[in-house]
Amino acid sequence: MPDDYAPPPGPPPSYSSSGSGSGSSKPVGDDYAPPPGPPPSAFKKLASNNPFNPFSHRNKAEDDYAPPPGPPPSAGKQPDPQHDWQMAVPDTSLLPPPPAFFTSFEYSQVNNASGEECAQGEQWCARYPLYRPAPLDGAAQAALSMGNINLFAPPGFRGSVTNAGVGIWHVETRSNATDTCLATYPPLYSPSLGPSATGARRRIYYEVNIDPRNKREVDLAIGFTAPPYPVFRLPGWHRGSLAVHGDDGSRFINDNRGGQAFVQPFKPGDTVGLGMEFSPGAGGQGIQVIIFFTRNGRFEDKWNLYEERDTEQDAPLVGLQGYHDICAAIGVFEGVKFDAVFAPGLWKWKGFHTEVL
């Protein structure tokens, strides 16, 4: 019965796609022609072994996709990025000044004592603690008001200390003089006369007239100490002391290194003065302390005892905060000539009672 039906017209479905008359069996998908053109990766595969071809060592799926039309974003000139410094840098105008990190010295720029002498000074201070404040009797208070202060040189001092009148002392040292601290009495400051007892401001001050014939380098330090203090060390190097050193103008507070930059070095013929001002703290709490320096009758500079300090290197301020007796202290070494003046009427600086620091 099937032989009675004719085949459908035309060639069998697989004839044109097979390219031959063989009866090969292929999936239905073989009846569809591939898309026109070469495969996308044909040219890159041809160059796969070319080391100078940028695509020769890439084998990623995205290589089969053409780049977007037009030049790359960086082809045209782009404006330089603008740095918004106002956003990056906060406003520091209201912050306190930073500590003087770059003005402190490990050693003096001019003269230095030996490490052994420094160690001896520290040992001396450990052996002799600061004295407790002593009340001033009537005679001591009268002498203090007149500036009738005694200046003492230790045994073995290589020089001379001569009283030239009430409140004035002439000092001359020999060229081989070693580091020496000249002590004074009575103390210029007593807690019994300070803010903690009176609630009022208290200033202390003295001057030194450097001989015009002195050598160019003035080997002199003017300062204050809370007694006792090692007489073989300059003031400012150990506990309870501060000073300005004339050879380099640096200031020292319990600092046996190189001090901090402060003023210009002293010169022959200069009159230099150093003072301390003790004032009641804010709200009546504590005592504020300012140290000030004058030269040739004019105020020159000052610093706050409690300024920001390096807690890892700076030693404590004990003895200088207004709760101990404080004496004038003058340090000398090698050859120097000067007059120490404690009498207020002989000072060149006239602002002791009136000038606001």
TrEMBL record:
Compartmental location: Membrane
Gene3D superfamilies linked to this entry: 2.60.120.920
CDD domains the record matches: SPRY_SSH4_like
Bias (Low complexity): 15-25
PANTHER family the record matches: RAN BINDING PROTEIN 9-RELATED
Residue numbers spanned by region Disordered: 1-93
A Pfam family: SPRY
Alphabetic keyword roster: Membrane, Transmembrane, Transmembrane helix
Cited InterPro entries: B30.2/SPRY_sf, ConA-like_dom_sf, SPRY_dom, SPRY_Ssh4-like, Ubq-SigPath_Reg
Keyword field contains Membrane: yes
Boundaries of every SPRY domain copy: 203-298
Main location: membrane
A cellular component annotation (GO) from this entry: membrane
Natural source organism: Microdochium trichocladiopsis
UniProt feature, compositional bias: Pro residues: 1-14
UniProt KW Transmembrane keyword: yes
Name of this protein: SPRY domain-containing protein
